[in-house]
Amino acid sequence: MSTSHASSDDGACGNGSNDASNEDSALLPSFLRGEVEHEGESGRHGFHPRHFCSVTYKSSNIVSQYVNFLWPFVPLAIIIRYVLPNHPLLIFGLSYVGMIPSANLLGFAGHEFAKKMPKVTGTLIETMFGSLVEIILFVVLIVKHQEPFEGEEGANGDEGNLIPIIQAAILGSILTNLLLCLGLCFFVAGLRKTTQKFHAAVSETGNGLLLVAAFGLLIPSAFYSALKGETTLAKNSLGFTFLTDKFTPKTLQRDILKISQMTSVVLIIAFGCYLLFNAKSQHSVFHEVIERDEHGDLDREEDQARMRYTGTETTVALVIALILATLLLIYLVEQIEAVVHSGVPDQFLGLILLPLVEKAAEHLTAIDEAYDGVINVALFHCLGPSIQTALFNGPLVVIIGWILNKPMDLNFEIFMIVLVVLGILVVGNFLRDGESNWLEGALLVVVYVIIAIASWYYPNPDVATSNGIEALAVPAGPKHVTIDRALLMDLLTAAS
Length: 496
Description:
This protein has helices at residues 49-58, 62-67, 73-83, 88-115, 119-130, 132-144, 163-192, 200-227, 249-281, 283-295, 300-305, 311-334, 336-341, 346-358, 360-371, 375-403, 414-431, 438-457, 485-495; strands spanning 5-6, 36-37, 196-197, 233-235, 241-243, 435-436, 473-476, 479-482.
C-alpha cells in the first residue's frame, strides 16, 4: 500500500511513496521532512487570520463546533479573576467552563498536527497533546501544594495540602477514560451499527499495559496498608504512649515516599517501551489497523473536504490553547479552597470534576470517531490516555514533587485504587471478545455513575483516611491528647 504526498503548506515539495508495511518508516512530522500526508494538506501556507478562525470554528466535528460557543467564558473568566477576586466560586465556575473550549482547541490542533505525520506516530502524538492539559494541571497542583504546619490537624485540600486531590485526579483520569469515555464510544457506535469489531493488537496491548500500570500504582498503597499496624509504640512508667526510634509511622511514610519515587522511574521507563513498541515493533500492524478504519469511516468524504490548518496555523493554535489552558487551570487551583469549603468533597473534586474538564478534548474526539465507525482509533484514544496517565503523567508529578522537595507519593486511598483495578478488569472482560455493542457501553457508564455517587459521600482526608499517618494520640478519659515526644521527654526529665 502506498500513500502519495502533496506539496507542504510551507512551500516545500515531496514526491514518492510510503510503504505501510515498512516498520522503519520516518517518524518525523511530514511537514518537517518537506512533505505533507494527503489527509493533512491545507493547500495554503503561512498564517491567514480569516481562514484560521474559520477552521477553528468548524473544528473536526459538529460537537466540537458547538463547544466553540463556550469561548466567551474564557475572557470572562480572566476578567472576573481580576475585577471580582472576592468571588471564588464564580471564578471557579467560569474557569471550569472556559477550560472546555481551550482543551477542545488543544485537541483539535493536535489532531491537525497528527494529520501531517505518519499514521501511527500521529495517533500517539495526538494522544499526548490531549494529555497536556492533565500534565499542566498536575504541575500547577504540586507547585501550589503547601505542607501543613507542624502540629496542624485536619490537613486537607482546603488547607493547602493538594496531594490528596492530585492522587484522586490521577485515578479519576484513568476511570473517566476507561468507563465514561469508552462506555460512550461503545454506546454511540452501537446506535449506528449493532456490533463493532476491533483489532486485538489495540485492545490486548492496551489492557495488558493497564494491568501492569495498576499493579505499579497499587504496590505503595498495599505496602502501607500491610505495615501501618506494625509501627512500634512504647509506654513509659507513667503510662504515656510515645513513638520509639524503631519502625515508626514516620519511618513508614519515608519508605512509602522512596518506593513511590523509584516506582515512578520504572513506570516512566515502561511508558518509553510502550512508545517504542507502537512506533517500531508493531508499526506496520497499527498502521494497517488505522488505515482500514479510516477507509471505513462513514464521514470520510466530509472529513477530507474540511479545511485544514497550515503548519504555521497549527503551531499558533497549539500555543494559544496551551497559554489559555494554563491560565485557567491556575485560576481553578487557586479557588479549590473555596470550593471545598462550599461543600464539594476533596475526592469528588479530584476523582470526577477535574478529570472531566481536563479530558474534554480526548472524549469529544474519541466519541466522534466511534460514531463514525472508526472504532479502533476511538479505542486507542480511550486506552492511550489512560496508559499515559498511569505510566507517565502520574509518575511524572511524583518526580516533580521529588525535585521540589514535596512529599508527593503513590499511596492512594485503598477505596480509590481498588476502583481502578476493578474498572480495568471490567473493561478487559468487555474487550476480550473483540466486539462491542451499545449495552456494554451503557453498563460502563452506569459503573462510572455509581463511582461518582460513592465519591461524593467519601469523607475528606481530615475526617477519615486509609493512607495517611494518623495523629499520635493516647486515651485521656472521653477525649484524646496529642503528645509531642520532645515535650514528653522534657516532662519526664523534670519529673525525675
